[in-house]
Structures are given as structure tokens and as C-alpha cells.
Predict the 3D structure of the following.
Amino acid sequence: MTHAGARLISRYLAAIHWFVPPEAQHDAAQLSRAQNVVNAVVMAALSGPLYALTYYLLGFTVAALEILACCVFMFVAPFLLRATRSIALAREVFLCAVFFNFTWLTYHLGGVSAPTAGWMLTAPVVAMFLGGYGSALCWLGLSCLAAVAIYACPLLGLPLPAHPVKDMALLYVLCDIGLYLVIVLFVLLFELTKAHGFNRLEHAIGVIREMAIRDELTGTHNRRHLLALIDQERERVLRGQPAFCVCLLDIDFFKRINDTYGHAAGDAVLRTFAKAVNQRIRDIDAFGRYGGEEFLLMLPCTSLDDAMRFAERVRRHVETLAFADVSLRLRVSVSIGVAQFHAGQSVDDVIGHADAALYLAKSRGRNRVVRHDPAGTTAQLVRRVACKR
């Protein structure tokens, strides 16, 4: 679709949205029906005057005036919708005008053999889009009764009115073409508003999905989603992909920040820290809040040495962060524990190794990066933690 076409559609949707009651804008079914009321009126506005002109040119001036009068009632429907906030009232006013129009024309053009007899189906069809099954069945019943009544008039000795149209064959052709065009036009308008509704729904679902995987405060991944991503990466490694590393990052003396500057300041520090780290990771990396002031970083296809170098760059950058909105004197540091996944380990195992390395970093004075050593002190810490569990 061209930019001009998209802009035109956007303007059209904005225009019909003006008529939709506020309470219907938050209900997908009501919004669709309200928009379809306006779509139906647009359809009538495009086709009604043309048909009035056709009947006028064919010499049936009364029919032309009747069509225009019905169009006026149809045009009232959107304004009734906005004024009364009643979709049902606007819908029934429109459908009454449609029903009367084609019943009157059919009666005055020769009865059930008239070129407008097929048009009597439009009331129940449009009612389906505007009001659902109940409304469609109601108008279907009325249309069938009207057709039976018109058919029965001559049988009961009530002759049908004479009409001045001489070229009925031409009128048949024009009515058939008009019926095709009106049906296609209305379906196009319906699809347009439906597609717009689906786009809104997809956007809402996307927002919900993001909320489900994001930490509300920092905007990074939450713990549950991080664990799921690490588990997926573990499966890839087991299928032959390069190993990955996990880093646990803990902001040093974070409680002191809360106690000194308040929890709002602590939240600002968390957001700034998360943003600083997030800006330095690759697209394939996964980073998020693991809990409190602790963050988890997964580095796919990364050796332990490369992970250590990256963690050290992060540590140094955090030392340079400024928090002018909190205090010009405030500086923070971070302790980081790094571990590499090996075949046979679980997600809990590799995170436990990173946690043990983080514990060592903090016990050795904080503001440092420590790697998990399977044969060293961190291995002993892991075993000790496992025994406690």
C-alpha cells in the first residue's frame, strides 16, 4: 500500500471514529458494530444519490424523491449514534430506511419480479454486520413477510401500481450492477475496519507479551524469561553449539543508597545501571533483573576468558556512571561472578557457579570480577550451598 493510500485510510478511520461512543471504543465487538453503522451510511451516501439520479432520468421522479428521502434518514444514523450513544437505535433507524426503500420500490416496480426484489436481502445482510445474528434474523423475517405480502396483493385483487419506467431491461442491468458494487464496497469497508481492529489487537497482545517478559522498573528481561532463555541456550549447546557464559552482577552497598537517598533514588540507580549495561551487550545476549539489585547476563557463544574481559569492561564503565538527579557525589560499583556452562550441567548449576563466584567477589572487597574455578574456592562454595539446599 502506498503512503498516500495509508494516509487516506487513516483519515477515514479517524473520521468514522468521531461517531463511535466512548464506551464502545474499549469493547472490540461494540466498536466493530458502531464502525459498521458508519460504514453502511458511507455506502448509502455513495450509492443512494446515484440511484436517485438514475430513476429520475428514467422518468420515475417519485422513486427518485423516495430514495433521497430514505437517504436522509440513513444519514441521520451516525449522528444519532454520537448523540444518544446507542448503537441499537442508530442501527434500527438505518435498517428501517433500507427496508422501506427497497420494499417501496419493489411494490411500485412490478412486485416480486421487480429489479429491486433482490435488494430486499440487503436489510438482513447489513443487519448481520451491524447487530449480529438476532438483528439479522429479525430483518430476514420482515423481508420475507414483505415479499410474501407484495406477492399476495394481486392474488387478493389488489393490483400493483403502474410505473412510468419504459426501459425495464436497462433498469434490471443497473440494479444488478449496483447490487454487486454495493456488496463489494460494504465488504471492503468492513474489512478495512476489521483489519484496523486486528492491528490494534495485535499491538495490545504485543504490549501484554512484553509486560510478561519485562521487569517493570528497569525494562530489562525479568527472572522467569531469563531462565527460559538460558534453558533454550543450554539445549542449543547440547546440540553442538559453542558454550555460553553467565554473569551475575550485584550493585555494591545498594541498601546504603536506599537508606541515604531514599527508595526513589535507589530505583533511579537501578534504571541507570540497567540501561548502561543493556547498551553494551550484543543482540544475541540476554540481560535482565534477577532480583533486587542483582542482575543476570547470559553471553551465548562466549568463552570464559572473553566473558571475563567483557565483565571487566562493564565493571569499569559502572564506576563512571553519574547520578545527577540523585546526588553529584553518588557513585556506584558492581561485583560480578562469571561461570561457563558445561555439558551435564543444569541451568541451576551454571547460575549457582556464577553465584558462588559473585560471593567471592563480594567477600574479597567488592567492585571486582571473579570467575568460577571448578578446582578452586568457588567449587567448594558451590558444594557448600548445595548441601544447605
